[in-house]
# Entry
Amino acid sequence: MAISKGSLRPKLRGQKAITHSLELVIQQTLRLWRRHHLGYDQTKYVVERVRRRLGLEQSHTRKRTVSRLDQSEVERLVHTTYRNKSKYGLMIKTLFHSGARVSEFAHIRVEDLFLDDDPPQIHIVHAKRGADRYVPILSALADELRTHLQGRQTGFLFESNRHTRYSTRTVQSIVTKCARAAGIKKRVFPHLLRHSIATILLDSGLVPIDQVQKFLGHVHLSTTQIYAETSLRALGENYVRALGGKLPPAKEKV
# Structure
C-alpha cells in the first residue's frame, strides 16, 4: 500500500517536536551542571539518582543470552595451544579456569597465588568496581603454575620478555590467534572464555548460581542470571537423555 507524503507529515512534525524538546532539556542541564562545576562522576551520580526518583528502569529488550564455547571446544583450544606454544596454552587455561576478566588476568601477580591452599586459589585484586575476590583452581593447574614460575616469588604471573605484564590487547590477540590455529570457527576472545566457564559450571548443576556470582565477581545476581538463561540451552538435551530418548543428529554448520 502506498504511503502519501501527507500522511508522513504529522509523524515527522512529532519527531521534530520531541527532538526540539530534548535539545531544550540538554541546554538547561548544561547550564545547571556548569553552574555547579560538576565533574564526570558527579554528573553520572546525578543522572542515576534522578532515574531512581522517577522510577525509570532499563529496557528489557536487550539480548538475554551470551555466546560461549562448549567443553570440547575449550579442550581443543587449550590442547592445540599447548602443542604450539606451552606458555600460551597455560595462559589460556588459567584465564578459562579463573573466570577472570582480561584486565584482571593481566594484573595477576605471583603474590596473588595461594597454590598450597586446599583448594588452591587466586586472589583477583585488580577487579572491576573494586570487587576483589578469591577464586578456586584445580590442583593440576596449580602444579603447572608452580612449574611455570620455577621458584619465582614476585612479579606478574605471566610476563613478557621484558619482565613486564602483558597488555590486555596482547592477551586478546593471543587468544584470538590460538583459536584460529585450533580450527575454531567462532569468534573467540578472552571474555568468551569467561562466558564459557560460567555456563559450564551452571550446566553441571553442581554449582549454585549465587556461588557462580561470587566466582565471577558480579555485584548483581541479575548479571549472572544471563549465563543461567544461556545454560538452559542444554536443558532440552539433558531432559531427553534423562528420559532415555534419542537426540536428533547434529546439523552440520555451513
